[in-house]
User: Fold this.
Amino acid sequence: MQHVSPVREPLVTGGKTYHDVTQDVCRQVEAAPNIRWMGALSVALLLLGVFFYSVYRTLWYGIGEWGLNKTVGWAWDITNFVWWVGIGHAGTLISAVLLLFRQKWRTSINRAAEAMTIFAVICAAMFPVLHMGRPWLAYWVFPLQNTFGSLWVNFNSPLLWDVFAISTYFSVSLVFWYTGLVPDFATIRDRAKGPIAKVAYSLLSFGWKGSAKHWSRYETVSLILAGVSTPLVLSVHTIVSMDFATSVVPGWHTTIFPPYFVAGAIFSGFAMVLTLMLITRVVFKLEDYITIEHIALMNKIMMITGSIVGVAYITEFFIAWYSQVEFEQYAFINRATGPYWWAYWSMMTCNVITPQLVWFRRVRYSIPLTFILSIIVNIGMWFERFVIIVTSLHRDYLPSSWAMFSPTIIDIGIYVGTIGLFFTLFLLFAKFFPVINMAEVKSVLKYTVDNGPTYTGHDPHHSPQPATTHGVPVTASVNYDKHD
Amino acid sequence: MQDSPKYWKGIEELESSPEFVKNALSEFADFMPVKESHGTSDATVAPRRDFLKLMGFGLAAATLASCEAPIKKAIPYLNKPEEVDPGIANFYASTFFNGQDYNSVLVKTREGRPIKLEGNPESPITRGGLSARAQAAVLSLYDGARLQHFAKNGAKVDKDQLDQEVRNALAGAGRVAIVSPTIISPSTKKVIAEFAARFGGAEHVMYDVNSASGLLRANGGVLPAYDFSKADVIVSFGADFLGTWLSPVEFARQYVENRKVSSTKRTMSKHFQFETNMSLTGSNADVREPMKPSALGEAVVSLYNALLGGAKPAGKLGMAAAALQSAGSRGLVVSGSNDPAIQTLVTAINQRLGSGAVDTANPSFVRQGDDARMARLVKDIAAGQIGAVIFYHANPVFDHPMGADLKAALTAKKVKTTISLNDRLDETGSLCTYAAPDHHFLESWNDFEPKRGYLSLAQPVITPLFATRQAQDSLLTWAGNPTTYYNYLRQQWQGVLGAGNFAKAWDKAVHDGVARGSALPAPAAQLEPAMDANSAMAAIKGAKSGGIELAIYEKIGVGNGADANNPWLQELPDPVTKATWGNYVTVPRAYAVEQKWEQGDVVTVTANGKSVSLPVLIQPGQAAGTIGIALGYGRSAAGKVANELGENVLPLAVMRNGAISYTNTVQLNATGTQSPIAQTQTHHTIMDRKPVVQEATLAQYRENPKEVTEYEKISTPDGLEKPSKVSLWQDYEYKNHHWGMAIDLNSCIGCGSCVVGCQAENNVAVVGKQEVINRREMHWMRIDRYYSSAAHKEDFEEKGKLATYAAMEDPSENPSVIFQPMMCQHCNHAPCETVCPVLATTHSSEGLNQMTYNRCVGTRYCANNCPYKVRRFNWFSYYSNEKFETVNGHMFTDLGRMVLNPDVTVRARGVMEKCSLCVQRIQLGKLEAKKQKRRPKDGEIVSACAQSCPTQAIVFGDMRDSESRISQLLRREDGERAFHVLDAINVQPNITYLTKIRNTDKSDFNA
Assistant:
């Protein structure tokens, strides 16, 4: 167990033992809810109430409760949809792509990131349904057998592609996330004292025994799901971007959208992961698992994707100029200088300029600055979608139809409400599910150890049991590239 | 011992057949078919299962029969009228005249209820055209705010009792007066005359809200009939003859005759307009000059002098003078002023020109009001000199400048007997003792003579909905004449049609709705003689000017306010301002900037010690130093639609030279409050977007008609090509029909008749002021209005793109205007069709872009992807959400729902809707043709908008039929004026527009 890498920074700090990991992660699942958690949940539930009220108004009276009009047929609804879907992307990227690329630092954040994906997709999925004029007929977008004769869905429609993309994404993410949870549920089950907890975690852990066969299958399934998820990281937002790119609306009809949207999604996703992690690690005292190195790494990814997005913004302008298409040119001039200039410049500031601060090591390694940065990026990415959707629609081809959009209280309520929904789900998850993948973190414990041998530990409460594998000397060289 | 008699149980016992003997001893008959089916070979025995089935059926039948049958409100005909077939519309000719504009109409009825008015093509006056107001009149029939019974002091009263009381009251009333707007019905006039004779020479005073008293006086008591088609040069001083002046539908048709151009006619009239407010007519003019009202008189004087050989005025007036001079008898000058002095000079100018467009021998009758007499009557009433007054469709308390005086007099009971024949307890009617409400014109018989020699009839097309009585019948009854008005009318018409074969001629006249002949007495000079030109000039010179001048105008929709409770008219956007629901103060931009006023700031306008507070609307083309306010608003007792909407500006008008002057000097004060104006269009310039709308000058057109329209080309490896040559899509093949439409922008004057026609035909919901402000009006058909801007793309180099684009958003001070009717373009490569996830919008085999409401889930993706923004979403349930009960009330009540077209679905909440190209009319036409085993004839199927267009700007037809009008038109105009809006995006619309041609030197539109 004891090995000090000559090159690498440790992934888990604080000299944790296997038992420490179990102990630290299970603590909040087993302990009574703390006051901070209760407070946070109350706020989230309040916002969830706002959500239900706004949805009630929308369903009972109609979409007219929103601020949309004949010219701007989508605004906050689809903005929020794309924003939430984008946020979800980081989870998949962390758990799938980084797994394939064997980035072991992801182990301590992938669980929460994946949970975030699931909850973000749930929030996102609210909007395509709610934005329908007749949401009770939402199932008509599925290619179902029906009694209407030869009626079928329109496979030409990007909205239909969305249906497939999002539902696939959601199911794969859910399975992937759950698969990872199974061994940890088993750990909690084994430690559970209360009868309800015993039954609940027994059911959740699917009878996991931790046998070699189980582990082998677990590894295989994880790998396969990672393989399946990886293209999804690209496909989902590509398809979402096609809602716009395949249209004829100037400002939407842009071939750069797929890569630009994917980069934007990862960008906003990492921002959201950072926001959540920075809170979680403090609230649940997981600073040793989600280390400053994690934060710095995620900052870097944010900066890179932010720069890609920035280049995309500039490319759009270049192409508009280069195309010499009047309507296209005007759409972009209007974006930057028209009545919604403030949205555009908010977006530019938040998404292009702010992430460049990450070049400074001091920013990268500063927790408060990172937190502020992540919030700014979240805001900026929301504005990006708002800018694309609303400023393109509000002034398109015929000047006679040009109009302005302003949100109603219900628009705001639904958006704020989905944040409530998201945090309600996340807080419940954080309380009842292991927020850190114990099994995988244990596999990287020996990756590096910073402060000397863990089993001798400086903490007298830890029993110094040698936990080395039988027959392998402690000094034996470790194959770092071995897959966990 | 005798044998006791033997009684047989039946014939069978007597015969003692072996079968009987066998069964005789068994108690129950053995033929109940209760046997298992299997195991028996006896086919006659019904199996047990059948028995159970029968029993089950019997039980079910008995149960069902005992259930209550659903109660349906439809009542079947006991005796079906011969001519009524459920599901098939009947058309009856009738006439609409409400004291404003005259329209000969066809009333479409379904199952005995009128659902739509259409133009009567037989009419030599309106020739199939119809004004927006006439279109909307059918909705007023079902207005629940109509008074539904006779009333005394507002309370219901028995008809006979009212008659008795009125007769008694009139008998000893002393001076009796009948107040009405202009009446053009010869028989009604006779009824009134008879009534007047009966009651000691009761006087009949007519007044018009939009008075032409000055014009009448200048012409010795007659209203000249104009024929704009006979004028090559038209100079109008504030006469909105295309919109509201005298007979706009008739004038529009005449005007456009000389404005249409084609390969065989490359000439058009030249139209100069000098006016204060930006009117519909002014926005169609080739040359327009904004002028203060006080300057208009001066302008007429200098034009008069110039034509007499005096000094040539400078500028546009000089151009007009020169054009008139060279046009001679093909010139025409008109003025909308109500000042007899100005009108005297205008008449003098026309006489000087020898204008062939003015006809005083066969004059028009549509304005007969005499302002001086009316003013005198109001004074007399106030002085208590009138014993009884009858208001016949007249609401002077609201719509006369002296309304306040009249109201005070009526409230103070200065008149002993007051009777209202108005259709509702309006501002005047509610102050009257007796109310004997008149029928709606669709429930009435009547005749009309709008112009000498031209007669028309109105016939009832529905049994009176309420306990009302035709006003003429009331007058006849009170005068003691027992005949009904119908018989009276027929009697009258015997004089017109001849007694010989009257029945047949009468039937034909009723059928056609129109007839030739005259029934009104030849007009005699009944007013003071007109002044001569010199005294007219002196009067004009003497007129004071200065300060901010107010010009009161009339709106196309609400007009004089009599029909204000009609939500279709309230929601009809003003053609120029595009504002709905209420009036406002139009101010020139420069003045608003100077005062730091924004659109929607409420200002108080004061004159004559009276004031109105209305929001400001910045109006390009408004003359400097002037403001405009529309009359017809500020009703307080019209009904819930119109009440408290806007303010009544008429009290700010004054009597001048014995006529109402619709101009006055006013003071303006900002109030610091805001009141948003509901406009359907908030961006006003075209932004130099030539692919959207195109125009050229007549000179360019004459020089090379191939160059007036700019066709966009796409670069391909083979060079520049039409956009349609480069396509990823497969084209549709149209085997049978290919419907299409062509809209001539040269003919479209922007009047909005089609908008209301479409609304009536297609059950389009009314959404009300707030929802219009929210930009959610539901009109399937709209008319885009663009102003020209002083900035153009040429300035890019010099001033930079950003600054130029910003400047292009501002209209010029006196912009030229273009109107573009816009509805679903029925694209062959429709962007909406591809994006619908559930295939709710699809392409038909006849080229229509169809909307399947039932299938729509309402994602609005189609609307976003529509480059023309013509799709309309049902944001709310407009027929059941209480928010819309006031404005869209006709969809809420059984009474109002009678106006709905049963062939068109009322759309549910959450679905998309849009122009269907009147698919129900196409279907009807096809079925009719099929029944007769032929193909539909061209012109037989007409969309509602094309039907109602007074200028025939819209041509609808089958583009597969090479002989159809539309095919010929497109062939002729291809490469000349025909263009598709946004051709380059290659959506290939089935609607084609024809480039507008202006008779000017330079087009300042998209230079």
Residues 349 and 380 of chain A are 8 Å apart (CA to CA). Chain A is about 65% helix and 0% strand. Chain A touches chain B through 54 residues (CB under 8 Å). The two ends of chain A are 15 Å apart (CA to CA).
